[in-house]
Fold:
Amino acid sequence: MNASFHPTPRTLMGPGPSDVHPRVLGAMGKATIGHLDPEFIALMEDIKELLRYCFHTTNSLTLPLSAPGSAAMEAAFANLLEPGDKVIVCINGVFGMRMAENVRRMGGELVTVEDEWGTPVDAAKLQDALTQHPDAKIVAFVHAETSTGVCSDAKTLCAMAAQAGCLSIVDSVTGLAGVELLVDEWAADVTYSGTQKCLSAPPGISLITFSDKAAARVQSRNTPVQSWFLDLSLLMAYWQGEGARTYHHTAPVNAMYGLHEALLMVKEEGIENAWQRHRDMHGLLAEGVRSLGLDFVVNAECRLPQLNLVRCPEGLDEAAVRRRLLEEYNLEIGAGLGAFAGKVWRIGLMGYSARRENVELCISALRSCI
Ligand SMILES: *Cc1c(COP(=O)(O)O)cnc(C)c1O
Structure:
């Protein structure tokens, strides 16, 4: 190619990244300043405050990580888990499986609680596992399973973990700003998210918050955190504290401008209003899906409004439909994963993508392609 790159603007209605608001893109084009510049440090403070607003928490240990959601998942396990610790991971989709893989690779003793893809984590099964494994130290689960479009009852699961003396790890990469997430009220210990789903900032940054209990666990470790880059105590020397902040890594300065603008937009809208907008746009999509004679895979009571698995009619080539949507309508929707591969579409209504014009485009484009 050897020429400037000019991507065709698309409408992004897959599992992420979602449409990025022009305000966020504009913020990212501002002058790059030093990552220890006093103005940048003031921006870092505002980012942390806005993150606490979005997570519904007062946790002091709340910060962005300079890497995508997958890094936040690793950071959660790397900081809490010590080799030999027993960890219960609830698996009801791809991201639960990745959590389990993190535990294996970090030398944890893995116990899994498995539920069928397309259904939520079964609290009764978790209770059984906690009873059978009183020595478990951590319970981990995915709040909003992007691979299946299912929302699990994070409040109940966190309460069960706490009751059994375990710390909870909650993956809300797709949940944050799209569905209710109340970190303090639910007493979730480590909760993480990403920029590219319902916050509608470009991919590449993640967000993480630690309760005081989780922070104390990190401080009382017997072994060093196995990852230097994700070691919270080192990161905090850069992200926290009065006066001198020390170099840890060079923060992606312009990406942080984008994150800040995206968080600010959630605050301006009001996070409860953002949740409601996702529900409203899901309702509109549901009308359209019904009008096309199509069905959702997930039952209404545990369906994520921001990530919709729609069954592809028998005999139709789902990949060909997605290709036509992209080529003829510049519209991206997602494919099914695992057991759902070839059988469903994943239609995302995340953040700035959760708009009436997007829903109407998606339904009319699908109507002409099926
Ligand atoms: C997208 C996603 C991740 C990973 O985030 P990346 O930014 O792709 O690394 C983790 N968990 C869930 C539930 C996700 O949807």
Summary: Residues 16, 68-70, 73, 95, 142, 146, 171, 173-174, 194, 196, 203 surround pyridoxal-5'-phosphate (CB under 6 Å).
